[in-house]
Write a structure and sequence with these properties.
Number of helices of chain A: 15
GO molecular function, one term (chains A, B): dipeptidase activity
EC number (chains A, B): 3.4.13.18
Largest sheet of chain A: 6 strands, mixed
InterPro entries (chains A, B): Cyt/Met_Dipeptidase, Peptidase_M20, Peptidase_M20_dimer
Distance between the termini of chain A: 28 Å
Number of domains of chain A: 2
Keywords (chains A, B): Dipeptidase, Hydrolase, Metal-binding, Protease
CATH superfamily of the largest domain in chain A: Zn peptidases
CATH topology of the largest domain in chain A: Aminopeptidase
Largest interface: A-B, 88 and 86 residues
Oligomer: homodimer
CATH class of the largest domain in chain A: Alpha Beta
Protein name (chains A, B): Cytosolic nonspecific dipeptidase
CATH architecture of the largest domain in chain A: 3-Layer(aba) Sandwich
Helix content of chain A: 25-40%
């Protein structure tokens, strides 16, 4: 079957590019809903029509978080004929894109897919219209070649990913035992290789604890000439407090924050050895080459661990202080310092909030200041760590071996993709991050592109992955999910994404 | 003469209010030159016509810093017939105003002078159209009563004061031996009493050293999930450096910064005793009442000294970091921390820049960071300190005694009015700050007002002041000024305002 499938895919290259061009031409920008909501809807309908042509059933489900005052794009659900003997995979993708305008510095119109040197330039080409359409092309190939799908496929496409996946978490919570009730595996193709040539599978993401530290000294901004020397300035306290959080070597200085971070085992360390990753080219990517040419860690292993498996703390900025250019002699009345930590496994955002709160209280006490201080955690999300040993990952690795004749790198990422955790926590089923775009695809940036090789190999990998999934034996584990969270657990930051927790294991 | 003058002034109250209303109706907003330049010109012509009616000569002098691409309002110079036996006073005022719009929270239209409870509400009423017109009303009274002016009067009104007095410093430098060549005294009525009822004379202003501390870690902003742990973050360094500058009790932590600050002598201390100043109502003015109700100093003397005769350091904000509301997971590439010090006598901005630069170098060294750091002094201005014993001050004190039957408070201010130093340094002649508005006049703010009592008593004080000046004997000291600064001295921050320095003393 493999040869026929690969040959069929290879023949259709031009058609795939044309169809990707049709999708890219729809400016489905989710951060500009006031003007682009109809475009997202159009893009949803484009994909829905495709599903229909493939003999699937589709549904444009009203966004559960939308209101008549603030309509949100629908969710697109797709089903194909179900064989109860087969396992079920839910593939996720998003059809919305980041904003783009040629004046931002694009070399060609961002909403016109433009081929140059084997690359397809266009907004959404790699993030995420290319990968999302690839699932449909895989199904199309099976239909036209008369090959049975080896697993049942459920499609879940959203239109708000680039704006926080609004509505999706509610959907996942509400549908964990309905639309998602018989899902055995999840597959998300919305991240990237860590290099340009070697495929990878992503088994970990860091969590997030985002804080706002507020200090207020007076009711309104004052003149530093007139009032300097008279009042306890809020900025003085805030800057000193923010200065106690992290040092210039990136070490977090908050007592207790590292308590739950597991030491690195030799086994884990060995995991990093085969990863293809070039520190020198990473300096270019990290944009430090022309400034200091220095990273926090000089060798591959330490650097990847610092980005993937250790927490970090970044100071993002201050709201309420003077942030313009030039000079303003202001004593800001109320300032809000923004900082966040990327969390790793076993670091609970709830506990992190506690240790940060205790740290701020201790440090503020030392300042002997009468100003008002307040700490808010704006977002909390647990990290996600899966096991590359899971059959879902093994299936993808086998597919990659078939297409690329190599084993994938096993990678983690420093960022957070909260739906991964949401899928797993709501259903107990394994989620796989299966990237098919390259590290230099420039998602979110100018000149976003998708290599034709990635497009073509991606379709092949996704097809092979379904066949590898089809080989997995054992009973369907779909019957034991759904132990609702308690009220108390629902109060926990991040609980919105884990309205239910499932105890079942494959 | 006094009785006739006072009676004449009292009779004309309605007329003064009407004329102030005409002036307030002209929205001469200097920060919005693109739309309001014609209004400033109109206001200048309004005052020029007034001078002409009084038999004076006037000149609208092109602003020396204006260009055809960027026209600036002219300077208004006014002369009255000169008697070479009399001394000459140059009175300064400004005819431009801060922006104002009723939607900002005004209770009545800001450009319609509106009387309520003995107060005249309107933009510019107290800052500075009321005081500026008062000089003309004084001359008018003399003319109509047939009383000789006891001194020669030169009028210098500008239209850019609320936007940094652009052009004025160049004028002062260029005209120190021409228009200003025969001036014996300067009088500036553009500040405020420190209370609501007791007049004061201001003999000191703090200087300024405004810094921008730049740290750059990478070429462009990065994602904290992806890059957190990999790069030396600029914000970490900047926040830590800013945290070494001042503590929560307002103490400046920069080595050497206090070296030139003279200790307080018992004589000086005694100076503060008679000052009418209520710490409790100041808490309201300092806007801390509802927050902490705490000031850096609890008693009048310490508080006034902290605002007037000691340096202070304020952290104003950061440019280049996230300053919006909500959460953004950014690692800013290049951040600029803004802070400034108010300087006091004997603190030279040049030396202050050196000690700050040395401090930053020392502290940055401790951080062991490869990031790029840079310190710029954006503005440097020396403080100004005069002596209340000078005959110019004695004249004003005697005038106040005549009108108010009280001696004035002698005050300093925490802010900087650089033209004061500019006048003195260019000519060697004494400058007096003679405020006639009250502390609650809300200059620059909503509901700016001018009390009718301040308007009326102000005209009387200015008139009596001229007569007291007329009594001062001794030779005219106008012949020995004008030792030009060296090229090197001109490079010093603040030198723009002291193009020439004069050694002559009264």
């Amino acid at each position: 079957m493999k040869e026929r499938f690969f040959a069929y895919v290879d023949e259709r290259q031009r058609r795939y590019i044309d169809q990707l061009g049709e999708a890219v031409a729809i400016p489905s920008v989710s951060s500009q809903l006031d003007t682009h909501l109809p475009d997202i809807q159009k893009m949803m309908e484009y994909a829905a029509n495709f599903i229909q042509r493939l003999g699937g059933q589709w549904e444009l489900r009203d966004n559960p978080d939308g209101t008549s005052e603030r309509p949100l794009p629908p969710l697109l659900l797709g089903h194909f004929p179900v064989d109860p003997r087969k396992k079920t995979v839910c593939v996720y993708g998003h059809l919305d894109v980041q904003p783009a305008h040629i004046d931002d510095g694009w070399d060609s119109e961002p909403f016109v897919l433009t081929e140059r040197d084997g690359k397809l330039f266009g907004r959404g080409s790699t993030d995420d219209k290319g990968p999302a359409l690839s699932w449909l092309w895989v199904i199309e190939a099976h239909k036209e070649l008369g090959i049975d799908l080896p697993v049942n496929i459920k499609i879940l496409y959203e239109g708000m990913e680039e704006y926080g996946s609004e509505g999706l978490f509610t959907f996942i919570r509400d549908e964990h035992d309905k639309f998602l009730g018989d899902v055995d595996f999840f597959c998300i193709s919305d991240n990237y290789w860590i290099g340009k040539s070697k495929p990878c599978l992503t088994y970990g993401l860091r969590g997030l604890a985002y804080f706002e530290l507020i200090v207020q000294g007076c009711e309104q901004d004052l003149h530093s000439g007139n009032m300097g020397g008279a009042v306890h300035e809020a900025m003085t306290d805030l800057i000193r407090l923010m200065g106690t959080l992290v040092d210039s070597q990136g070490r977090i200085l908050i007592e207790g924050v590292m308590d739950d971070v597991k030491p690195v085992t030799p086994e884990e360390e060995a995991f990093y050895d085969p990863i293809e990753f070039d520190v020198e080219s990473f300096k270019e990517e990290a944009k430090v080459k022309s400034i200091s040419n220095k990273l926090l860690h000089g060798n591959k292993k330490d650097l990847l661990m610092a980005r993937w498996r250790f927490p970090t703390l970044s100071l993002h900025g201050i709201e309420g202080a003077f942030s313009g250019s030039g000079a303003k002699t202001v004593i800001p009345a109320k300032v809000k310092g923004k900082f966040s930590m990327r969390l790793v496994p076993d670091q609970d955002p709830v506990r992190i909030e506690q240790v940060v709160r205790a740290h701020i209280a201790r440090e503020f006490e030392k300042l002997n200041s009468p100003n008002k201080v307040e700490l808010n955690m704006l977002h909390g999300a647990k990290s996600w760590l899966s096991s590359p040993d899971h059959p879902n990952y093994a299936a993808a690795a086998a597919a990659i071996q078939t297409v690329f004749q190599t084993t994938p790198d096993y990678t983690r990422e420093g960022g957070s993709i909260p739906i991964t955790t949401a899928f797993e926590e709501a259903t107990g089923m394994n989620a796989l991050l299966l990237p098919i775009g390259a590290c230099d695809d420039m998602a979110h940036s100018q000149n976003e592109k998708y290599n034709i090789t990635n497009l073509m190999n991606g379709i092949k990998v996704l097809g092979m992955y379904l066949h590898e999934l089809g080989k997995i034996g054992g009973p369907k584990p779909s019957s034991c999910r759904c132990i609702p969270l308690t009220e108390e657990e629902l109060m926990v930051p991040g609980a919105f994404m884990k309205g239910f927790r499932c105890k079942c294991e494959m």
